[in-house]
Write a structure and sequence with these properties.
Layout lengths: L14 H11 L10 H24 L11 H11 L11 H4 L1 H12 L11 E5 L11 E5 H13 L4 H11 L1
Antiparallel strand pairs: 1-2
Helix pairs in contact: 2-7, 3-6
Organism: Engystomops pustulosus (Tungara frog)
Protein name: Polysaccharide biosynthesis domain-containing protein
C-alpha cells in the first residue's frame, strides 16, 4: 500500500519526543497549535487505520464485515439522509464543499456519544475499486468513513478489492 504522503518522519521520533507528543494530545487543541510532531502522529494513526482496513477488505468478504456495533444504525441513517450519495467513486465536493459540510454536520453529530472518536481524522478512498494512494485518498471524519465503507461493503463496491486479492493469492 502506497503511503498517502511522506510519513517516514515518525520513525525519527525518540522516546522523549513521543511522550511529549502524547502529552500534547491530551491538551486542548488551542494549547499546541500546529506542532509538526503532533500532526505527524495524527497522520501516522490515520495511515495505520487505513492500512488495517484495506488489509481487512482484502482478506474478508466485505458483505460479512461488521465495522462497529452500530453498523445497521449508521447504514440506515446514512442512506436515509444521503439516499443518492455515490459511494463507488466519491466526488470530493460531496464531502468538502460548504453545502456538503452543512449537510454532513448534523449526520456526524448524531453519533457524537455513540461512536468512539466519531470525529477523528480518517483516510477515505475516493474510488472504491482502488488502493489508498495520494491521488485516491481524502481526509474525512471517522463517522463519514464508517458510513461510506459500511455502505460500500453492503452494496458490493468493495468486492473488487477482495476478489482481486483472492485471485492474486491463487
Amino acid at each position: 500500500m502506497a503511503a498517502p504522503g511522506d510519513l517516514a518522519g515518525l520513525g525519527s521520533l525518540g522516546a522523549a519526543e513521543a511522550l511529549s507528543v502524547a502529552e500534547a494530545l491530551s491538551l486542548p487543541a488551542e494549547a499546541y497549535g500546529n506542532d509538526p510532531n503532533v500532526e505527524m502522529v495524527w497522520a501516522m494513526k490515520a495511515y495505520q487505520h487505513a492500512e488495517v482496513y484495506f488489509n481487512l477488505i482484502s482478506s474478508v468478504d466485505p458483505p460479512l464485515l461488521k465495522l462497529t456495533r452500530l453498523d445497521e444504525l449508521i447504514y440506515t441513517t446514512f442512506r436515509k439522509e444521503f439516499p443518492d450519495f455515490r459511494i463507488d467513486v466519491i466526488d470530493p465536493e460531496d464531502l468538502k464543499s460548504p453545502a456538503a459540510k452543512e449537510k454532513w454536520r448534523p449526520f456526524c453529530m448524531q453519533f457524537e456519544h455513540q461512536v468512539e472518536d466519531f470525529n477523528y481524522g480518517t483516510l477515505l478512498r475516493l474510488d472504491s475499486s482502488k488502493e489508498y494512494s495520494e491521488e485516491n485518498t481524502i481526509f474525512s471524519t471517522r463517522i463519514q468513513f464508517f458510513a461510506i465503507e459500511i455502505a460500500r461493503n453492503r452494496e458490493g463496491c468493495n468486492n473488487v478489492i477482495y476478489n482481486r486479492a483472492k485471485d492474486a493469492a491463487k
